[in-house]
């Protein structure tokens, strides 16, 4: 990982992060020295300002035949970061002498960027994009793809069109439309955002989806002594937020295996799970049967049996990675055959996991498919604004989609 520290002003220190991966350089975060940089894109009669997401926020200003993505702004829940976000909106339009006639934002009504767009769009067109479509469209635009493509989008959460939290997706898409072909089996997120920090809640939620309460107390689970466990089990009997996020599944597995119960920084449980798996050489895998949903019960049953049998945690973690990759690759191969494409894009924060990225790249290439990861803006939410702008541009130009939703 190359890390360069750059002084933005007298009080803010921002790193840009990039990594050489095989024959590619993948940016995880872009800052001074690399921004602002104009990127040639298709012509447009409109000036579009895409407002990005809630976390790792960036902006994208797109007009005529070029796009500019801002520096890494950060997480908008922080007041100073939000102030920087609003200042950047004015600053980008001023220095590039382009006044936006269209704003683009995420579907999620609680995102501060979305709320800003809604508040400030009374006299300007506003387009809302689905989170994972924007992830996919950004990579599609970066690599100048055409025709239908298949997106494997794996991240923590993003609001879906059904008002549940998505994040383990196989999409058929172009820049105008998308269809959700497959997704991870949803499981509850007890406590909402609290469960992301108290990772054991996610482990318990996944187990409760497939085991009765009495069975749970008989399992070798490391969080059985949590003081609030009985309370969370009661919460799980009621209606909860559902998530199909791959990031949440990684968290749950990390908890069940005793690797991480409480996260002190973003992605900690998943990072430690990856590190654990990296020491294993096993080729074995857990089953994730594919229907419309990618089912999690069979893998969970086998994983817990391996725990009871005393199998090394590193081998269990690797079998989880192997099985997850196999199931998504199977979905993608079938989708490519059905929709006559060989183009696969990979995006979403889970692809910061190098072990996961390597396994996907190898398996998809071995299947004879063209694989495109997010490189210029990375796989995380810093790439959302570029994808949002690509979608909006295609919509405003009246482009015809080559993706027809199923009836």
SSE layout and pairings?
Elements: E1 2-7, E2 13-21, E3 24-29, E4 38-50, E5 60-69, H1 79-95, E6 102-106, H2 112-119, E7 125-129, H3 131-142, E8 149-159, E9 165-173, E10 178-184, E11 187-188, H4 193-197, H5 200-210, H6 213-217, H7 229-236, E12 242-243, H8 246-256, H9 268-277, E13 293-294, H10 297-308, H11 313-339, E14 343-347, H12 354-366, E15 370-373, H13 384-396
Parallel strand pairs: 4-6, 6-7, 8-14, 10-13, 14-15
Antiparallel strand pairs: 1-2, 2-3, 4-5, 8-9, 9-10, 11-12
Number of domains as seen in the coordinates: 2
Strand order of the largest sheet: 13-10-9-8-14-15
Shape: globular
Radius of gyration, rounded? 21 Å
| Rounded average pLDDT | 91
CATH superfamily name of the largest domain?
Answer: ATPase, nucleotide binding domain
Q: How would a crystallographer describe the biggest sheet?
A: 6 strands, mixed
Distance between the termini: 46 Å
What is the CATH class name of the largest domain? Alpha Beta
Strand content range? 15-25%
Q: How many H/I helical runs?
A: 13
Element pattern in H and E: EEEEEHEHEHEEEEHHHHEHHEHHEHEH
CATH topology of the largest domain: Nucleotidyltransferase, domain 5
The counted number of beta strands is 15
What does this entry look like structurally?
The radius of gyration is 21 Å and the shape is globular. The chain folds into two domains: 2-146 and 380-396, Nucleotidyltransferase, domain 5, CATH 3.30.420.360; 147-379, ATPase, nucleotide binding domain (Nucleotidyltransferase, domain 5). With 407 residues, it is α/β, with parallel strands linked by helices. The relative contact order is 0.16. Helix 3 (131-142) crosses helix 13, helix 5 (200-210) packs across helix 8 and helix 11 (313-339) crosses helix 12. The model is unreliable at 1-13 (pLDDT under 50). The protein contains 13 helices and 15 strands.
